[in-house]
Structures are given as structure tokens and as C-alpha cells.
UniProtKB/TrEMBL annotation:
InterPro entries: Class_I_gatase-like (IPR029062), DJ-1/PfpI (IPR002818), Prot/Nucl_acid_deglycase (IPR050325)
Lyase in keyword set: yes
Keyword Transcription regulation found: no
Keywords, comma-separated and alphabetical: Lyase, Stress response
UniProt protein name: Thiamine biosynthesis protein ThiJ
A Pfam family hit: DJ-1_PfpI
GO terms assigned for molecular function: glyoxalase III activity
Organism in which the protein naturally occurs: Flavobacterium reichenbachii
Domain annotation DJ-1/PfpI: ranges: 28-216
Length: 226
């Protein structure tokens, strides 16, 4: 049986006091999609509202994986993302949350998303997220009442990176917020490829880290216990 991956995306298209245009950051969905596709996994998309999601960073379309996503089945599937509340997430071997500033708008407090992440993690399926995507892990409480990120080795878009990118637009700094909930945060050099697996939780720092997150997720999914 082929593994099944659910990619959960934001529906936001603007952020901050100046309504900065945003969406899911193209390489953060396209690069993992390419890796999952090469592994012959079933890839489905869900969004929080079921409305057509948005893409950011279309200026990077000349990258081979990005272009293949846009012109192949990836973007076509993403445009048809179903509403998360209609999905039986228990049927999936992994969930993956790409970033983009959009995720900072509608994912920090979304109760259903938090429930999905909690239940996926606790049944030992794989949870992956990259860049601003780990905001999906924020405020997730496990059955024992502790924050999911408490004591976990994770990374995300760093405060240093945000200071040079969208400090005027984001509602809070993601690294600081995750650390406040007990995460053992690991930051690499700004904009460098950096991903971490801690058990069945995989996180990446920035767009350059998206492929590495998918690769680490695949290693876990292909391990004998999975």
C-alpha cells in the first residue's frame, strides 16, 4: 500500500497592517510535493476553509520543481484542496504544513488544525512543517496537557530571519513563541538548509529546508515500524 500524505495549507492572502500580499510559499509546497511524488505516495490537499488557496513567490517559478508543480498536477490539486473539517485525517500516514506568511494569519489558533496535529502526532503518524508552517504546532496540547513542542528539538523561520524579512507584518515572532512553549529550538545560519527530525516530528527552518523536511519524513515513513 502506498503511503498517504495530507498537505494542509492556509487560505490567507494578506497579512499585517499594510495588507502585504501572501500565500503558501511556492518552493515550500513544490519541493516536498516532488519528493513525495517520487516516493509514489498519494498526495492530497486540505485547507482550513475549503476555499481556493493562494501561492506566494511565483517569481521563483523557474526552479525545476517549482515549475513542475505549477504546470503539472501539484497546483491543480492544491486549487481543489478540500475543507479540512471534511477530511478523515486518520487515514493518512503523515500531514505536512508548508509555510509562507499566510500560515501566520489563520493557523496560530485554529482549533481544528490543533486537534488534527495532536491526533496525528499521538497515533504516531508523521507530522512535518517548514518555515512559518510550524506555527501549526503552536498551542497544540497533547492528551497529558503539555504543549506538543515542549522538550522537542525543532526549528522554524527564525527571529533573525524574520527581522530581515517581514518583521513589520507578522503578529509575533515564531521562534520566540515556540521557545516560550518549551521547544528546544535549533537555528542554523540564516537562509541555509536546515531540518530536524525528533521522533515522528519533522521541522525545517526556511524555504531552502523544505526538501530536507520531506526527505526526513520519507525516511521515517519507510522505516520498518511504519
Amino acid at each position: 500500500m502506498n503511503k498517504k500524505i495530507l498537505i494542509i495549507v492556509s487560505n490567507a492572502n494578506a497579512i499585517g497592517p499594510n495588507n502585504r500580499r501572501t500565500g503558501t510559499f511556492l518552493p515550500e509546497v513544490a519541493h516536498p510535493y516532488a519528493e513525495f511524488d517520487k516516493a509514489n505516495y498519494q498526495i492530497d490537499f486540505a485547507s482550513l476553509t475549503g476555499d481556493t488557496p493562494y501561492l506566494d513567490a511565483l517569481n521563483l517559478a523557474n526552479d525545476p520543481d517549482n515549475l513542475a508543480f505549477l504546470t503539472g498536477k501539484g497546483w491543480e490539486k492544491m486549487q481543489k484542496a478540500v475543507k479540512l473539517s471534511t477530511v478523515d485525517v486518520s487515514k493518512y500516514d503523515a500531514v505536512f504544513v508548508p509555510g509562507g506568511l499566510a500560515s501566520m494569519v489563520d493557523m496560530p489558533e485554529n482549533e481544528l488544525l490543533k486537534k488534527v496535529i495532536k491526533e496525528t502526532y499521538e497515533r504516531n503518524a508523521v507530522v512535518g512543517a517548514v518555515c512559518h508552517g510550524p506555527v501549526s504546532l503552536l498551542n497544540v496540547k497533547l492528551s497529558n496537557g503539555t504543549y506538543l513542542v515542549n522538550g522537542k528539538n525543532i526549528t522554524s523561520f527564525t527571529d533573525e530571519e524574520e527581522n530581515g524579512y517581514a518583521i513589520a507584518d507578522v503578529p509575533f515572532l515564531l521562534e520566540s513563541a515556540l521557545t516560550k512553549q518549551g521547544a528546544k529550538f535549533h537555528a542554523a545560519a540564516v537562509w541555509s538548509a536546515h531540518s530536524i527530525a525528533d521522533g515522528n516530528l519533522v521541522t525545517g527552518q526556511n524555504p531552502a529546508s523544505a526538501k530536507g523536511v520531506a526527505e526526513k519524513m520519507i525516511v521515517i515513513l519507510e522505516s520498518p515500524k511504519k
